[in-house]
């Protein structure tokens, strides 16, 4: 009987050690999971702080579109106005220069597209005639 009692104690001790190890493992896993979640929340908070500090084109465009939608006007136009309002003066000058250049080069672009279509039509006609 002494041997049976000692065997039962060993089994109880082993099962208690196993339970303790599993509890420690679970505690470690929970700690790591909460640590990862906390890191993600801190990263998101930092990103939101940067957006709040700097504003930004996207945020101002979003707010401009929402404001225009609330007023009943076109949200796309409101978003454009909001984005342009957030630009620096140098960026506004660059945008205006790009738009002026695009308007000036538009006729040239149309001519080049028409020329490409003519060349394609001639190529198709020659290919069809050769068959």
Topology as a string of helices (H) and strands (E): HHHH
Percent strand equals: under 5%
- Sheet with most strands: none
Radius of gyration: 35 Å
**Per the principal axes of the C-alpha atoms, what is the gross shape?**
elongated
Mean pLDDT score, rounded? 86
Distance between the termini: 105 Å
What is the tally of beta strands?
Answer: 0
Helix content: over 70%
Structural class: mainly alpha
Low-pLDDT residue intervals, each spanning 5 or more residues: none
Provide a quick synopsis of the model.
The protein has helices at 2-54, 57-71, 75-86, 89-130. With 131 residues, it is mostly helical.
Task: Please give a handful of descriptors for the protein shown.
mainly alpha; transmembrane; 131 residues; 4 helices
Write the layout of secondary structure elements.
Layout: H1 2-54, H2 57-71, H3 75-86, H4 89-130
Helix pairs in contact: 2-3
Structure description:
It is a single chain. Helix 2 packs antiparallel against helix 3 (75-86). This protein has a domain at 1-54. It has helices at residues 2-54, 57-71, 75-86, 89-130. Helix content is 93%, strand content 0%. It is built from four helices and no strands. It is elongated and about 100 Å long. By secondary structure, the chain is mainly α. Keywords: Membrane, Transmembrane, Transmembrane helix. The chain crosses the membrane at residues 93-126.
């Amino acid at each position: 009987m002494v041997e049976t009692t000692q065997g039962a104690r060993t089994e109880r001790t082993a099962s208690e050690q196993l339970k303790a190890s599993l509890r420690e493992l679970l505690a470690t896993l929970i700690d790591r999971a909460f640590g990862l979640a906390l890191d993600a929340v801190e990263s998101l908070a930092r990103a939101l702080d940067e957006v709040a500090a700097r504003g930004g084109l996207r945020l101002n465009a979003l707010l401009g579109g929402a404001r225009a939608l609330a007023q009943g006007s076109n949200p796309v136009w409101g978003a454009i106005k909001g984005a342009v309002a957030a630009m620096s003066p140098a960026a506004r000058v660059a945008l205006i220069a790009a738009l002026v250049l695009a308007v000036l080069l538009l006729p040239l672009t149309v001519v080049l597209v028409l020329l490409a279509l003519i060349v394609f039509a001639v190529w198709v006609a020659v290919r069809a005639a050769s068959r």
